[in-house]
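Structural prep section.
Before we set up the soaks we want a predicted structure of the protein with 6-O-phosphono-beta-D-fructofuranose in place, mainly to decide which crystallisation condition to try first. Input record follows.
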Amino acid sequence: MSLQNTNPTKTKAWEQLSAHFNTAKDLELKDLFAKDTTRSKRFTIALDNLKLDFSKNKISQETLDLLVGLAKETGLENAIEQYFGGEIINATEGRAVLHTALRNNSGAAVISEEIDVMPEVNQAKESIKAFTEKVISGNWKGYTGKEITDIVNIGIGGSDLGPNMVVDALQYYKNHLTTHFVSNIDGDHVSEVIKKLNPETTLFVIVSKTFTTQETIGNALTIKEWFLQKASKEDVAKHFVAVSTNLEAVADFGIASENVFPMWNWVGGRFSLWSAVGISIALSVGYENYAALLNGAYEMDTHFKTADFDKNIPVVLALLSIWYNNFYEAESEAVLPYTQYLNTLPAYLQQAFMESNGKSVDRDGNDVDYQTGTIIWGAAGTNMQHAFMQLVHQGTKLIPCDFIGFETSLYGKEDHHKKLMANFYGQQDALCFGKTKEEVLASGVTADAIELPFKVFTGNRPSNCITADKLSPNSLGKIIAMYEHKIFVQGIIWNIFSFDQFGVELGKEMAKKLLK
Ligand code: F6P
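Run finished without errors. Recording the tokens verbatim:
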């Protein structure tokens, strides 16, 4: 069974949405809130410790109903079944898309191409667990008999961004191991990392699905050369492990087969942190925390699979995004986490969203004549308030924002947390309600003051408020999976293939030619 091919702009729902937009575009958030005191409650969806309040969006109930109609008409229900059911929905590469199987805690089989993938997944988890416990406990010894103190993840793109972001995000839960990431082919990157390392106590994890990526193999060879200046070839087994599908290339590199963790073709690089690609996460925070991260994602998967579309967090996020992208012609979206721990979340999401949905050919092979893809950017609050928020509040562009906040801080510094959260909600209110000329006058600015028009805020700028109890492996797992499914829903509705990435190839080819 293949995915339905429907040009979204030719659907009945699209026609209705276009007609609706003509009046809806004049909706004022201020008025919507004034007319309906239950708006915030009505437009909130809760999933255990996670909540999405989407009331500050330029929508009415009718908008939401029509958007849900669009999802149904473009075959989303069926597509979700195919996604979780192991169908070959990555048709251009002939693969299933099963990162959800990696966190499937239901005990149920996941059959793809007549094979249950779960036994292999569970076996891989067992070996990740045993390996991480051995390293963390100090039972894994380096070539001079010393315990491991440093882990280096060598990878790029999906083999770097996800693990790097999660290790950063969960540093509160970290153990004694120091984790480093080498990704760029820029030799200065690897040199700066090597400078901090002692070969006797460092474990290198080479992560590459293909094991052919120029950056990763280049950096791994440089590191091996540096290692062999002190150690012998036989010592490589104690210091290098790999995560890959390309067992032959891994063996050629000199890594012992018992030190290779599996990857599968049905896991896309940008969705792979749930596989052994996340081994540096498990090493950093311990297997239990890693398993809790996976479980958070599993809980989001279950919600996504079962909740009605208008009560479904990833579906609603995707529909709102389409509303702004395709009707308001918004060019980008900002992701604004109010925790320094998630400062690299936007960079991670850039690959997830833009490599997935930056496509201009539809599932029929025809050029699309409508907008796809969303440009994602952002940074942690409150720092970004002192950087780019001027443009979001008073610039000419409409930039829908996702604000992500947590009810409690991890170190319990109440005073700081109150200030942080006051800013978190203050920004959303300012974007939504603005400040009229009358309010500026009432605040003491005189009618002839030169600054009067510059102090007016139009407001009516949309945002989502995503909150969780605290930043934990569980809530982080939910947040990442929430965005993964948002990407999926958008791709289905835009009628594009979200799981290939041919667009990254030409530049690589050109670089190879130039190198010769
Ligand atoms: O940039 C293209 C890409 O293929 C990404 O999709 C992937 O995450 C990255 O390169 C790394 O690939 P690999 O894990 O095969 O080294």
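Observations: The chain has two domains: 8-73+307-501, 115-288.
Flagged for discussion at group meeting.
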